[in-house]
Amino acid sequence: MPEPLLVIENLHARVASGDKREILKGVNLTINKGEVHAIMGKNGSGKSTLAQVLAGRETYEVTEGSVTYMGKDLLELSAEERAREGVFLAFQYPVEIPGVSTSYFLRAAVNAVREHRGLPEISAPEFLKLVRDKMKLLHMDNSFMNRAVNEGFSGGEKKRNEIFQMAVMDPILALMDETDSGLDIDALKTVSYGANTLRSPERGILLVTHYQRMLNYIVPDYVHVMLDGRIVTSGDKSLALELEAKGYDWVEKEYAQPAGA
Amino acid sequence: MTQVAEEKDILVSTYAQMRETLDTPSTPWLDELRRAGMAHFEKVGFPSGREEAWRFTNVAPIARTKFTPGLGTITPVARDVAKQYSFGDKAAIELVFINGHFARELSKLDRLPGEAHVGTLADAFDADDQTVRNNIGRLVKLDTTPFTALNAGFVFDGAFIRLPRNTTIPAPIHLLFVSTAGADGQPTVCHPRVLILAEDNVEAAIVESYVGPEGAVYWTNAVTEVAIGKDSRIDHNKLQQESLRAFHTAAMHVHLDRGSYFISHNTTIGGRITRNDPSVKMAGEGAYAVLNGLVILDGEQHCDNHTLLDHFSPNCPSHELYKHVLDGKSSAVFKGQIYVHPEAQKTDSKQTSKSLLLSDSAEINSMPALEIYADDVKCTHGSTVGPVDQDMLFYLRSRGVGIDAAKHLLTYAFVADVTRRITVEPVRARIEDFMAAQHGLPRDLRITDLSDFDAEVL
Asked: How is domain A4-255 classified at the architecture level of CATH?
């Protein structure tokens, strides 16, 4: 029997300030343990917003619907509580934090999760071993730990850093927001390899992407297409190929709701 | 005459009376400097808020406090403070001043390489030193601010550093100015003076620390003059950690000859009212100036930095980065003037002011002022003001770091972005340790290397 990890029901969300534009207009999605789901859609379809809402970004406001994560009401939890419960968001645009070393940043993150689980702070040798292993996995240079978080990194380095952090944090639900954008083929392979090591019967992965390319390396169990804040069609990996071949115009023609409907 | 003007005259005249009571050794030329200083101060008086340069800084609390001249006695309090802020072995030489008087007993006077000289102005005055005579008051004029005139009126001691051609000083030269209140807690005033003459191809780091015991009321009114010869490299750090009830006014003028490099790190942590007027004149072609500043305030503290990058010659780059962290009801002013003379073609100047407001009552006035009279130049300025960056905050929270811990970390990071450019280790450590203690963070946060990105900024 599949065991649900994440259940999204009729999720509506809007921008919290300004024009309060509604972006998610009734998303339904269930991810069972062990599954990899991909959400595809063109820019502005709401796919990145979905990833951010799930991670607890407060610039969006949930107006309707529910999200249940491992039996808990995810929307009740703050961003940091979600992270401690095993939700990880790999950012589309990783943030630069000048003045904080990657080493300290990661240790603070690992310890926050450990404290939540009632574990003592990670020891220095243990931490070093952990990051060394994961750095090797993602072909990263040692000097990187002493650099400021993401500062001066190329687009590819930043994405690699996200997956490195994901590997170190060892999440239960990994949300990857357009991790493939801006990556060359070698970086894409490395990043995908890192992400694939997380595949396990206990975990779930939600990939958000514009293109089919990454799905050659992280093969999804399910593919969903998002249009104007809703999932309009779902299928297996062949849907991604079909989408690639026919383009997003096809989706619009097929599934767009007439205005006012 | 209005009542306000009358009060002003009375306040000013107390300094003339104070001057008369002082029996400081002199030479005719020193007498003349003091006389001119007093005369100028009596003429202009304390600056008023009606003057553009003082619009956001009210010096009435200074003018209305009755100060007495601080004594050079090494009291137990003075000794403790000097010990607390000493660089110990990390300094090549450390001159300690108590209320402006040199304290030989507390100082570290090791030999310096070659003919390098680090001594006191009092000794130079006694010796009728003609180099000092020719240079003192040459860069910081009596009319730079009213307080520079007052400083000249009371000048009697301070530091004199002379670094002959081809000198390299391997460790920082530390000038530690300790101020204390009087024996029964009455407010004191002192007017420290620093004269630095670096000839051609010199490399040195100089630190001026201004400190005092917590809670003491006093006024430090300092003047620093720095003349730098061709191809020299001078790293200047000023670390102001005065008592939170103290007043601090200071002017510095730096004169750069061809191909020289000057970097200033101007940090304000203490003081109730602080006013700094640092200015650099790029007089020789290809001179390069960096002015970096940090202002970390809380409570009702106020700090005003009026900076000037004076581009006088062609092909001179300059960079300026001032950051403010303001909590409580504190307030800060940043005036960043860049003046490009008609001859200063190919000037490349970049100015940035960033302010982090940690409370709704904190306030910053950030004012770039670019005056450009050459046509082939690049001058940019930018200013940001706001609370903790929301994107950074979410990034940290999304990794499990709690919101309060994340805010503390980002405040630290905001400051560390400047401190990591500081190459004088004890200065950097002192500021970073202060920040770590303030924000409940460990001391091992530091970034050890500068990335390529930083190299560009430097």
From this structure: 3-Layer(aba) Sandwich (3.40)
B421 in contact with A, Cβ within 8 Å: no
Testing the interface with B: which of A54, A85, A89, A97 to mutate, by most B Cβ within 10 A?
A: A97
Q: How far is CA A158 from CA A138, A153, A163, B339, in A?
A: 12, 6, 9, 39
**Antiparallel, parallel or unpaired: β B68-69 and B203-211:** unpaired
In the structure, what pLDDT confidence band is assigned to residue B376 with cuts at 50, 70 and 90?
very high
pLDDT higher than threshold 50 for residue B150: yes
B355 occurs within a structural domain: no
| Strand partners of residue B238 | B208, B266
**A148 with B447: Cβ contact below 8 A:** yes
Q: Do B400 and A112 touch (CB under 8 A)?
A: yes
pLDDT tens, residue by residue, B178-225: 999 998 999 999 999 999 999 999 999 999 999 999 999 999 999 999
What is the domain range of residue B438?
A: 389-458
Tens-place pLDDT, residues A157-195: 999 999 999 999 999 999 999 999 889 999 999 999 999
**ipTM score of complex:** 0.96
Residue of B nearest to A92 (CA): B395
B259 and B393 assigned to the same domain: no
* Among B248, B293, B273, B238, CA closest to B415: B293
- Whether A142 has its CB under 8 Å from any CB of chain B: the answer is no
Sign of torsion over alpha carbons B11, B12, B14, B18: positive
Do A109 and B399 lie within an 8 Å CB cutoff?
Answer: yes
pLDDT surpasses 90 at A140: no
What pTM does this model have? Answer: 0.90
Residue B397 touches partner A, C-beta closer than 8 Å = yes
Contact call for residues B447 and B415 (beta carbons, < 8 A): no
